[in-house]
Design goal:
globular; mainly alpha; 78 residues
Length: 78
């Protein structure tokens, strides 16, 4: 099971120099969604949401998941 990592989202957003409202607009998401993800009140976002965030931040979508989850995903793809 994939576990979304809110700290990874926050770090990528801050590295990109974006505020939460700017990220929401760039990703085409509701501002409440971005806030909920960073506050951990939305723990299992849909893949489409994570993909939009990754595209908006120019990172891989797997960067938003715990390291052990990324390893499992990589092995499954092999």
């Amino acid at each position: 099971m994939k576990r979304f990592n809110p700290a990874a989202l926050r770090a990528a957003r801050e590295k990109a120099g974006l505020s939460k409202p700017q990220l929401a607009e760039r990703a085409g998401l509701a501002l409440d969604t971005v806030y909920a993800l960073e506050r951990e009140t939305l723990r299992s976002p849909r893949d489409s949401v994570v993909e939009k965030l990754a595209e908006a931040l120019a990172v891989e979508w797997l960067d938003f998941y715990a390291a052990d989850d990324r390893e499992s995903e990589s092995k499954a793809a092999s």
